[in-house]
C-alpha cells in the first residue's frame, strides 16, 4: 500500500510538502511508500523537485513522486492577479511540457540508479508524455 499526497493549490502546497517529506522519512521501509505530487505547470516545480530529492537522499531513505501537468491554471492565475503576486504558472503549454520532461527524466534516472529507493507515478492525460515515459 502507498499514500499519494495530492498537492493541488499553491497556497496549501508548502504544508502538504512538509508533511509529505516528514512522512517519507518516517514511513520508509524497503521502498518508498509516500508519493508527493509535483504540479509541473508551476514555474517552481523544477527547483522544488531538486530540493526535495536532495533532502530525502541526504537522509538515506527513498523518494517517490507523482508527476502531473496540473489542472488549476486558471484558478492560480486568478489568485495571483487578485492578490498582486507573480503568476506562478508557466506561460505556455510547451514550457509545462519541458518541465514535465525534466521532472520525469530526473525521476527515471534516479530509479535507474537505485530502483528500490525511487518511484514515480506518471499522471498525465497527454499522450505524447505517456509514450515518452513508456519509451
Automatic annotation (TrEMBL):
Looking at the record, the residues that make up the Proline dehydrogenase domain are 2-134
Return the PANTHER family for the record. Answer: HYDROXYPROLINE DEHYDROGENASE, PROLINE OXIDASE
| InterPro entries named in the record | FAD-linked_oxidoreductase-like, Proline_DH_dom, Proline_oxidase
Catalysed reaction equations from the record: trans-4-hydroxy-L-proline + a quinone = (3R,5S)-1-pyrroline-3-hydroxy-5-carboxylate + a quinol + H(+); L-proline + a quinone = (S)-1-pyrroline-5-carboxylate + a quinol + H(+)
Asked if the keyword ATP-binding belongs to this entry, the reply reads no
Record organism: Tegillarca granosa
Note whether Cytoplasm occurs among the keywords. no
Please describe what this protein does. Answer: Converts proline to delta-1-pyrroline-5-carboxylate.
Q: Which family does it belong to?
A: Belongs to the proline oxidase family.
Enzyme class, one word?
oxidoreductase
Superkingdom as given in the UniProt entry:
Eukaryota
In Swiss-Prot or TrEMBL terms, this protein is called Proline dehydrogenase
